[in-house]
Write a structure and sequence with these properties.
Length: 462
């Protein structure tokens, strides 16, 4: 290595050391008892008047703890610790006046007239030396083997403290971010920043829209439309989903009502219901109220996870829900672990095949077998089956061959805003009229599908 490259390598090494040091967020923070205690202990073990917890910054050494010294920092170019951080073991100068590296050092020749120095480097888990735990005397000394070992042990404890703080800080920072997001979500509720998009479910044979799924979006000021995957988990964790989920039910019912009033034949609307909502004793009342006030036809979609615990209660709740004329679909079917016997006992109407199987189905025989089995299973249990996330004509053809009942996916339409739903429903009315003359064929289906897609908004999110 030539001189230039070794200089750059050294700079690079120092840059990364400083990055590590900064990550501890310790420089220029107030003195703290824990670190002072380590310094006092070091001074007393070695029997010297001065001990420091020193951190070597870009051009200074700064003292987190100090015993027997006034200064809070000294320039790096005169610092003994700047040498010590290059050492693996304890760096010992028994008599500075006899060491040519320090004989002219102003800390030796002027104040405070250092003669003895011993510094144990503080080594971070990534191997970088951040500074030292060091002891100083104004007379020459030797460091005994026991004192040397004690200094090393203490320096490791100082480092462990620093590391612990860094880790705790990441937690509290994460917590602060979570708090900010929660505040924003609470504001979103009171400022009505949520919005419903709808994605059609299409009958595989006729190509007609036979249902809509309500999918929430957050129209967050300054951010645009936010996907539910990015905020539903926090709503669930915080329990706010109960309130927001209630709103989704009421809003879907209100939109349904409005479409009827506009003379559109609104299909049933399926609403995603989270486990927390379903487990609440007032859920049925909330659902009933949303529907009764608008006479809307709502269905619900729940994930397999919700079925895993409190089996009997779940069966009872679902039974009561169906008494209201609400159909129940198991969402993302195939990703959970529902037992088949249990499935047979459940008062449900529909299985929705998870998108991941639909994607893989055309290239992978196993996935194809899974899709085919789910369809057979559903029909065997007298359930309706819907394929999620159908994006290609190939997938549609296969699903039709496998006798899947309905499909949902970008091939027919992405989730669209209310106004776009109305357009889709109007074009449905027109095509239904057309069908009185000619029965739907595959090619007609494709044409209408494409027309529907053109009128649909291309993407839900910005
Ligand atoms: P989900 O219930 O499985 O909804 C289907 C998701 O797949 C939707 O994502 C939809 O936009 C997307 N999708 C549909 N067809 C296709 C396709 O062909 N290709 C691709 N790549 N994606 C497709 P979205 O709207 O982002 O919703 C994500 C999840 O958020 C939903 O998954 C649901 O679990 C949850 N969610 C949405 N709205 C609500 C709500 O009101 N309440 C609750 N609890 N959860 C909701
Ligand atoms: Ca769903
Ligand atoms: Ca799904």
């Amino acid at each position: 290595m030539n001189a230039v490259t070794s200089a750059t390598a050294a700079q690079e090494k120092e840059r990364s050391r400083l990055l590590t040091l900064k990550s501890y967020d310790i420089l220029d923070t107030p003195a703290e008892e824990v670190f002072d205690e380590f310094a006092r202990l070091a001074a007393s073990i070695v029997g010297v008047p001065v001990a420091l917890v020193s951190l070597v910054d870009g051009n200074r050494q700064w003292f987190k703890a100090k015993v027997g010294l006034e200064a809070t920092e000294t320039p790096r170019d005169v610092a003994f610790c700047a040498h010590a951080i290059g050492s693996v073991d304890v760096f010992v100068i028994p008599d500075a006046l006899k060491d040519e590296r320090f004989v002219d050092n102003p800390l030796v020749t002027d104040g405070p007239k250092i003669r003895f120095y011993a510094g144990a480097p503080l080594i971070a888990p990534d191997g970088q030396a951040l500074g030292t735990l060091c002891v100083i005397d104004f007379v020459p000394r030797e460091l005994t083997a026991e004192q040397n070992e004690a200094l090393q042990i203490l320096s490791r404890h100082v480092m462990a403290q620093l590391e612990l703080r860094r880790r705790l800080a990441t937690f509290t920072r994460g917590d602060a971010l979570r708090q900010r997001e929660l505040t924003a979500l609470r504001r979103a509720i009171s400022a009505s920043e949520f919005q419903l998009y709808y994605q059609p479910k299409v009958d595989m044979r006729s190509g007609h829209i036979v249902g809509l799924e309500a999918l929430i979006r957050w129209n967050r000021p300054g951010y645009g439309l936010i996907s539910p995957i990015d905020f539903i988990p926090l709503l669930e964790e915080s329990g706010l989903i109960v309130e927001v989920g209630g709103w989704v039910l009421r809003q879907s019912a209100a939109d349904y009502r409005e479409w009827l009033q506009k003379g559109l034949s609104a299909p049933r609307i399926a609403v995603n219901v989270s486990p927390l909502q379903l487990r609440r004793s007032d859920f049925i009342a909330v659902l009933e109220h949303a529907m009764a006030s608008t006479r809307a036809a709502l269905d619900i979609e729940i994930t397999e996870g919700v079925l895993m615990e409190k089996t009997e209660e779940v069966i009872e709740t679902l039974g009561a829900i169906r008494q209201l004329g609400v159909r129940v679909a198991i969402d993302d079917f195939g990703t959970g672990y529902s037992s088949l016997r249990y499935l047979a006992r459940l008062p449900i109407d529909t299985l929705k095949i998870d998108r991941s199987f639909v994607i893989a189905m055309t290239d992978n025989a196993d996935d194809m077998a899974i899709v085919s089995s789910i369809i057979t299973l559903a029909h065997g249990l007298d359930l309706n089956v819907v394929a999620e996330g159908v994006e290609t004509e190939e997938q549609r053809k296969l699903l039709r061959l496998l006798r899947c009942d309905q499909m949902q996916g970008y091939l027919f339409s992405k989730p669209v805003a209310k106004a776009e739903v109305e357009k889709l429903l109007r074009s449905e009315v027109a095509s239904n009229a057309g069908e009185a003359i000619a029965n739907a064929t595959d090619s007609e289906f494709t044409e209408r599908r494409l027309a529907g897609r053109k009128s649909g908004e291309p993407s839900g999110y910005r």
